[in-house]
Automatic annotation (TrEMBL):
It comes from the Archaea. Residues 36-102 form the Cupin type-2 domain. CDD domains: cupin_KdgF. InterPro entries: Bacilysin_H2HPP_isomerase (IPR052535), Cupin_2 (IPR013096), RmlC-like_jellyroll (IPR014710), RmlC_Cupin_sf (IPR011051). This is Cupin domain protein. Transmembrane segments: none annotated. SUPFAM superfamilies: RmlC-like cupins.
Length: 117
């Protein structure tokens, strides 16, 4: 069987307003979800957890990220690994761009993507 590849361009992906001051574009593969966040200064991600492993990569800005009992101010190039079922939250100290990768696929985000088509 040959390799099957799908190509996408983020400019063609719908941006979703998910929380006040927080927009996201989702890409879903068979096993992962990629979330491309645009977050305005002052935006808050409330404390939550999920059964997915999450890797957050800061592209731009400063974001105060709390994972479990540890809090860090993340800047460009910083990466946080959030294990499944660990509470985490954050606040944007400036405008931010962040990429989150989730494993396995976030079915709740797949549904949200489909709802907004």
């Amino acid at each position: 069987m040959g390799v099957v590849m799908t190509f996408k361009n983020l400019n063609d992906v719908e941006e979703i307003d998910i929380l006040p001051k927080i927009k996201v574009k989702f890409i879903h593969s068979k096993n992962m979800t990629f979330a491309y966040w645009k977050i305005q200064s002052g935006a808050i991600f409330p404390d939550h957890s999920h059964p997915h492993e999450q890797v957050a990569t800061m592209l731009e800005g400063e974001f105060e990220f709390k994972v479990g009992n540890e809090k860090r101010i993340m800047k460009e190039g910083d990466i946080a690994i959030v294990l499944p079922n660990i509470n985490h939250s954050g606040i944007a100290l400036t405008d931010c761009k962040i990429i989150d990768v989730f494993f396995p696929t976030r079915e709740d985000y797949v549904e949200l993507s489909n709802k907004n088509k």
